[in-house]
Amino acid sequence: MNHRDHVGWIGTGRMGSVLADRLLAQGVDLTVYNRTRSKAEPLARRGARIVDHPADLADQDIVIISVAGSNDFAEVIVGPQGLLRDPARIPKLIVDTSTVSMEVSSEIRRKGSELGTALLAAPVSGNPKVARAGKLSLAVSGPRDAYEAALPYLRMLGRSVTYVGEGEAARLVKICHNLILGIVAQALAETTVLAERGGIARSDYLDFINDSVMGSTFTRYKTPALVNLDFTPTFTGHLLRKDLDLGLDAARQSKVPLPLSALTHEIVDRLIREGLGDLDFAALLELEARGAKLQLKPEGRAVSDGLDEGRLTARP
To answer: How far, in Å, are 76, 134, 277, 281 from residue 72 at the CA level?
Structure first.
């Protein structure tokens, strides 16, 4: 494949719209489907064509998918209007950037292989802000030749692409990644509340953490949310619980004990029960503060999210 390929895109939610826009910005010929057509229209103004059904993308050379979960993933591929509806008219290669179960992905891979379509699992690490900054990481698994063919497009989506093997290996990598995500987010919430209870400003504590050996891209880009209590969703508590479910299910099948992940799952369950599940999962900070009977207030302080050197973010 080359940059003159016809590329299809399925899913223009918060992440998908940003990633599809990155392809358009680099001159890719792109045709887009989204269940709610209006959410794809901004991409049309950038040069994309819009179709009404996933099956309408079956004549594309490569189709990239960014959807919410396993059911959506299966529906757009093998559903009544899915990509593989007509065996005589199917894409050469499907790339899925979503986080879905290994069982569903394996079944779709088998079906595609029977028809002559290769599937690459290519889940991403990062939220839409990270994607917009070009700093996503991708883990990819599937046939090596399909990976080599898709690599030019994968590199357009983020800063790093790691091939981790055949089959569903990338699914497991992403599941493990999101277990770490939940555990670190909860640890950050707990220690930030402890520091504030001791009279330390959240911004000061997080500034120290970010510049220490414990700092990371994640702690930096979550800092504005924690400092100014901006829980506008980039990745909700409901989505985090879904990924923790996937991780714990994989652990049961592999007979690997995950005590920290299991405890984090319980905490995220409580986050949802307390009505915070539709917010960004950084709302774990608010849940922790409630447990400590600590009233949080936005600091109103401009702090960097680390994604754009020198750019400061703060709530009005």
So the answer is: 6, 26, 20, 22
